[in-house]
Amino acid sequence: MDGRRAVYFHTRHEYEALDAARSRMHDPTWTEQYPIRAGVEDTLSQGVRAFGMRQSRYIGLLKTGLQEVCSAVAMNVSRVVHWLDGWPRTQTRVTRFAALAPAF
Protein backbone atom coordinates (compact mmCIF):
# COMPACT_ATOMS: atom_id res chain seq x y z
CA MET A 1 0.00 0.00 0.00
CA ASP A 2 1.28 3.46 -0.82
CA GLY A 3 0.30 5.23 2.41
CA ARG A 4 -3.30 6.02 1.51
CA ARG A 5 -6.04 5.18 3.94
CA ALA A 6 -8.89 2.90 3.11
CA VAL A 7 -12.42 3.28 4.42
CA TYR A 8 -14.49 0.18 5.00
CA PHE A 9 -18.23 0.19 5.57
CA HIS A 10 -19.92 -2.89 6.97
CA THR A 11 -22.84 -4.35 5.11
CA ARG A 12 -26.22 -3.85 6.74
CA HIS A 13 -26.23 -7.45 8.02
CA GLU A 14 -22.75 -7.09 9.59
CA TYR A 15 -23.62 -3.73 11.10
CA GLU A 16 -26.81 -5.06 12.69
CA ALA A 17 -24.95 -8.08 14.10
CA LEU A 18 -22.25 -5.83 15.61
CA ASP A 19 -24.88 -3.48 17.01
CA ALA A 20 -26.76 -6.40 18.60
CA ALA A 21 -23.51 -7.72 20.13
CA ARG A 22 -22.69 -4.29 21.55
CA SER A 23 -26.16 -3.93 23.04
CA ARG A 24 -25.80 -7.34 24.76
CA MET A 25 -22.76 -5.96 26.59
CA HIS A 26 -25.09 -3.92 28.83
CA ASP A 27 -26.95 -7.04 29.98
CA PRO A 28 -26.13 -8.08 33.59
CA THR A 29 -25.74 -11.72 32.52
CA TRP A 30 -23.01 -10.72 30.04
CA THR A 31 -21.24 -8.73 32.74
CA GLU A 32 -21.14 -11.81 35.00
CA GLN A 33 -19.84 -14.10 32.25
CA TYR A 34 -17.20 -11.76 30.81
CA PRO A 35 -14.52 -12.33 33.50
CA ILE A 36 -14.63 -16.06 32.72
CA ARG A 37 -14.16 -15.37 29.02
CA ALA A 38 -11.35 -12.91 29.75
CA GLY A 39 -9.50 -15.62 31.71
CA VAL A 40 -9.86 -18.06 28.84
CA GLU A 41 -8.68 -15.44 26.32
CA ASP A 42 -5.67 -14.72 28.56
CA THR A 43 -4.76 -18.40 28.64
CA LEU A 44 -5.05 -18.70 24.87
CA SER A 45 -2.94 -15.57 24.42
CA GLN A 46 -0.24 -16.93 26.73
CA GLY A 47 -0.23 -20.23 24.84
CA VAL A 48 0.25 -18.48 21.52
CA ARG A 49 2.82 -15.92 22.69
CA ALA A 50 4.97 -17.98 25.05
CA PHE A 51 4.51 -21.56 23.90
CA GLY A 52 4.06 -21.34 20.12
CA MET A 53 0.59 -22.84 19.99
CA ARG A 54 -0.49 -21.04 16.82
CA GLN A 55 0.70 -23.96 14.70
CA SER A 56 1.22 -27.60 15.43
CA ARG A 57 4.76 -28.89 15.09
CA TYR A 58 3.54 -32.33 14.18
CA ILE A 59 1.29 -34.04 11.66
CA GLY A 60 -1.47 -36.27 12.94
CA LEU A 61 -4.15 -36.02 15.57
CA LEU A 62 -2.35 -38.03 18.26
CA LYS A 63 0.90 -36.08 18.04
CA THR A 64 -0.93 -32.75 17.89
CA GLY A 65 -2.99 -33.72 20.94
CA LEU A 66 0.18 -34.66 22.79
CA GLN A 67 1.71 -31.27 21.93
CA GLU A 68 -1.39 -29.51 23.30
CA VAL A 69 -1.25 -31.47 26.54
CA CYS A 70 2.47 -30.82 26.96
CA SER A 71 1.96 -27.12 26.28
CA ALA A 72 -0.85 -26.98 28.85
CA VAL A 73 1.36 -28.66 31.44
CA ALA A 74 4.18 -26.23 30.65
CA MET A 75 1.82 -23.25 31.05
CA ASN A 76 0.61 -24.55 34.41
CA VAL A 77 4.17 -25.17 35.62
CA SER A 78 5.16 -21.69 34.48
CA ARG A 79 2.24 -20.13 36.35
CA VAL A 80 3.02 -22.11 39.52
CA VAL A 81 6.69 -21.12 39.41
CA HIS A 82 5.77 -17.45 38.98
CA TRP A 83 3.27 -17.73 41.83
CA LEU A 84 5.83 -19.37 44.14
CA ASP A 85 8.44 -16.74 43.25
CA GLY A 86 5.96 -14.03 44.20
CA TRP A 87 5.74 -12.39 40.78
CA PRO A 88 2.87 -9.90 40.75
CA ARG A 89 0.13 -10.49 38.24
CA THR A 90 0.25 -8.01 35.41
CA GLN A 91 -2.45 -5.42 35.00
CA THR A 92 -4.41 -4.97 31.81
CA ARG A 93 -2.85 -2.47 29.44
CA VAL A 94 -4.45 0.96 29.18
CA THR A 95 -4.70 2.48 25.73
CA ARG A 96 -3.21 5.91 25.17
CA PHE A 97 -6.67 7.32 24.62
CA ALA A 98 -8.00 5.81 27.86
CA ALA A 99 -5.01 7.18 29.75
CA LEU A 100 -6.16 10.70 28.83
CA ALA A 101 -9.48 10.21 30.61
CA PRO A 102 -9.66 11.58 34.15
CA ALA A 103 -9.59 8.97 36.90
CA PHE A 104 -12.62 8.81 39.16
Automatic annotation (TrEMBL):
InterPro entries assigned: Tnp_DDE_dom
Residue ranges occupied by any Transposase DDE domain in the UniProt entry: 10-80
Protein name: Transposase
Organism per entry: Microvirga aerilata
Lineage, opening ranks: Bacteria, Pseudomonadati, Pseudomonadota, Alphaproteobacteria, Hyphomicrobiales
